[in-house]
Structure formats: structure tokens, C-alpha cells
């Protein structure tokens, strides 16, 4: 059987091209540290890696949401701590206001500080979160509270803020509406918001605020009840924040571990054994060099010309 010169050259060229391509591929595997450079290298593993990458991307988004929720809960707890301190101070002033030794000027001084506490509460209730929205405004887009010209404070938010997704079908309520925390607090025979509770106490102590000592004592009793209930409401909200924060800590740890596991699994699936790859590269280069040398010698033999 005769072997044509063209066939001989073509087959040797293909062989050397294949060896050269294999050497280049092994070099790229070594430089990138990846065994799978294209899906065709291992379709089954490539498909698995694609699914893993999708899951890892979802976990990355969940981890980002967890951090946001943790930040919002932290802001909420800090704000409510300030509210609790203001309410405790109001309780201290209320106790002092019950003394029979106080005169009108003394009570007016207490009223002035209570009005300052109302200002503090209003400012805290209108805290904006890390996203620039009202921390206690629920799903509303503006300020949580507004203040009329006569000093009346009203809730301007809407409902509850939407929960933040932190996993597959798992959500967390990262903020609380001001209406739920600061409103509808039992104070005496009725309900008031926290601003009205403190504001009414200030008005009762101010000059001309109470028609009679009996009326003032009733105002103090209502304020005592309201402040106690308001402080309980705030402490309950802070306890809830603490529980949600603990849950987020667990979820954050899980996502961190999942990210670490993903990197390990991906490395095991697509990583290259550098030592083995270097050995394969050396073998491939030796084979290529031998083939090139053989081709060079054989192509120069007159026998081939004679055969053809």
C-alpha cells in the first residue's frame, strides 16, 4: 500500500498540532489552576459547577441581605435605647413632680425638661436608616412623624416595612413601625402615643396647666401609667430585635460556611493537580519534540520520493 507524500505531511502536521494544542492546554491549566477550561472538557462536572455557581450567587445575595438586616436591627435597637433612656428620665421627673414641696416655678422647670424630652423622642422616631428611609416609617416613603404648628405629633408612615429575604423562602422583619411601638399605649382611662403621654405631663406641670391640685395629681397618675406601659412596649420591641439579631447571626454563619464549602468543592471539581500536570506537560513536550525530529528526518529521505 502506497502512502502519499501529501497524506504523510498532513498526518504528521495534525499529530504535531494536536500535541502542541495539548501542551498549550496543559500550560493554561497550570497557569489558571483549573482543570476544566471549557464545558466540553467535562460536560457533567461543568453542569454541576454551573448549578453550584447559581447557588453560590444566591447565597451571596442572601449574605448581603443579612448584613443589611443586621444593620437595620442595630439602628433600631440604638434608637429604642435612646427612647428608653428618655422615658426613664421622664419617670424620674414625674416622681419629683409629685412632691408637695414644689412650687409653680419648680414644676415649670420640670415641664421645660419634659418638653425637651418630647423633642428628643420626635427626633429619634424620625431616624433615617442606612438606606435613607425612615427607620420607623413602615412602608412609607417620607418621614415617620410630622409635627403641626401647635406641636401635635402625628404618625405619617404606612403599615409595616416589607420583610427582607435572607434565604430560600426565609425572610426577616428588620424594622418596626412607629405606630406599633410608640402608639396606642394605655395611659389611665384611655390610650395615647408616647409623645402625647410626655407632652400632657409637661402641660400639666407648666404654669396654668392644671386647674386644681387634684387635676394635677390625676395627670401625674395617668402619666405614670402611660410611661410604665410605654417603657414596657419599648423593652419588648428591643427583646424582639435581639431575638431576630440572634437568628441573623446563625444565618450569617451558615452562609459563611456555605461559601467556604463552595470554594472547596469547586476547587476539588475543577482544580488541577499541578504536579501531575507538569509531568504531563513534560511528557507531551518530549513526544512533540520526538515527533518533530522524526518528521524532519523522514521527510528528507529519498525513499519516500521513490515509494511515491
TrEMBL record:
Domain of life assignment: Bacteria
Subcellular location, principal: other
Domain named Flagellin C-terminal: residues: 227-306
Keywords: Bacterial flagellum, Cell projection, Cilium, Flagellum
Cross-referenced Pfam families: Flagellin_C, Flagellin_N
Cell compartments where the protein resides: Bacterial flagellum; Secreted
Domain called Flagellin N-terminal: residue spans: 23-139
InterPro entries associated with the record: Flagell_FlgL, Flagellin, Flagellin_C, Flagellin_N
Family: Belongs to the bacterial flagellin family.
Protein's recorded name: Flagellar hook-associated protein FlgL
Annotated organism of origin: Sphingomonas tabacisoli
Lineage of source species: Bacteria, Pseudomonadati, Pseudomonadota, Alphaproteobacteria, Sphingomonadales
Gene that this sequence comes from: flgL
